[in-house]
Specification:
- The chain has about 180 residues and is of the alpha+beta class.
- It has one domain: M1 Pyruvate Kinase, Domain 3 (Beta Barrel), CATH 2.40.33.20.
- It is built from 4 helices and 13 strands.
- The strands form 3 sheets. Strands 2-1-6-5-11-8-7-13 form an 8-stranded mixed beta sheet. Strands 4-3-12 form a 3-stranded antiparallel beta sheet, with no helix packed on it. Strands 9-10 form a two-stranded antiparallel sheet.
Length: about 180
């Protein structure tokens, strides 16, 4: 495990089947333009089943799903128990407020991989089947602007590579004006 004081990869998850949760793994490979090798959501075009019904040829803006450990901790304080991978995320981060970053932010994962943030993951109906009330707990409407979500952000893989639990996370903001996250 890499030691660092900045943002890190807390845990990694993947599942070859379309299930709500993903299994923890110590490392995986990100493939440019595709996503997490061996994950059901990897592909150049949309792999999320509900989105495939609408347009199976749509570019896959949801190749990698990230959730901050701090979100899991906050939900636990509110009486919910969502383990790492429990939102179906591929990467659980620590020390990085993902939802506050603008669209187009580049994250460097470890020493090789680069991903670009594309937007919020909107919570699907399955989330309440996992725990009643969880969908409402991760959705909120500010006084102005679009609905916001705490169940993670989505990304596309720009440059592939192996990522491991404990790897540091670097970031580069896109040029201004920054575009806030919206659901993708």
């Amino acid at each position: 495990m890499t030691s660092t004081t900045g943002p890190v990869i807390e845990s990694l998850h993947r599942n070859a089947e379309h299930t709500f949760t993903k299994e923890s793994v110590p490392e995986f490979v990100l493939v440019a333009g595709i996503g997490v090798e061996g994950d059901a959501h990897a592909g150049a075009t949309t792999q999320h089943l509900s989105r495939q019904k609408k347009d199976p040829n749509r570019p896959n803006l949801r190749q990698v799903h990230l959730v901050a450990r701090e979100v899991h901790d906050g939900l636990r304080a509110d009486g919910f128990e969502v383990p790492g991978g429990g939102f179906g995320e591929n990467i659980t981060t620590r020390g990085l407020e993902l939802g506050a970053l603008p669209v187009g932010t580049i994250l460097r994962l470890g020493t090789e991989a680069l991903i670009v943030l594309t937007g919020f993951r909107d919570p699907c109906a399955q989330i309440d089947r996992a725990q009643e009330g969880l969908r409402a707990a991760v959705s909120f409407k500010p006084e102005t602007g679009p609905m916001l979500f705490r169940n993670g952000v989505m990304a596309m893989v720009v440059r592939g590579g192996t990522v491991r639990v404990g790897d540091p996370i670097g970031l580069a903001l896109p040029p201004e004006p920054h575009q806030p996250m919206q659901k993708v």
